[in-house]
Design a protein that fits this description.
The chain has about 120 residues and is mainly α. The chain has two domains: about 60 residues, Orthogonal Bundle (Arc Repressor Mutant, subunit A); about 45 residues, no CATH class. The chain has six helices and three strands, in the order αβααββααα. The protein has a three-stranded antiparallel β-sheet. β2 and β3 form a beta hairpin. α1 crosses α3. The radius of gyration is 19 Å and the shape is elongated. The two termini are about 25 Å apart.
Length: about 120
């Protein structure tokens, strides 16, 4: 699986805006939405960010419409899996062991984790 977690802030803003729209939008609408937030990006600036996101496989442009390839939830799951694969060799138990060594875990949280695992 490709790792996407080194996304610059501006690209992240663009993908977040696309997720908020929930359906394909015109690039001109994106420019308007950013202008409303005080970002006076030029069309070429936005086009550069969209091209980078497209190269990463996160955005698709067809007939002047732009859409996110993955939902926010799908993307976050891919990010989490890539991080666990990279840092803990794909082992969730190694992640939990590392987390609990460095952070205290409440009895309630431990019980909830056990319930989740039992239901899995």
């Amino acid at each position: 699986m490709k790792s996407f977690y080194n996304m610059p802030d501006a690209e992240r803003e663009v993908i977040e805006k696309l997720w908020d729209q929930k359906e394909p939008v015109k690039q001109s609408l994106l420019l308007t939405l950013f202008a409303e937030e005080g970002k006076e990006w030029k069309r070429q600036t936005l086009n550069t960010f969209l091209s980078r996101l497209e190269e990463k496989g996160l955005v698709r442009r067809e007939n002047r419409m732009v859409t996110a390839v993955y939902s926010r939830e799908e993307y976050n799951l891919m990010q989490m899996k890539a991080a666990i694969d990279h840092m803990y060799g794909g082992s969730l138990s190694n992640l939990i062991a590392a987390f609990t060594r460095e952070n205290s875990i409440s009895q309630k949280d431990a019980e909830e984790l056990i319930k989740i695992l039992e239901n899995y």
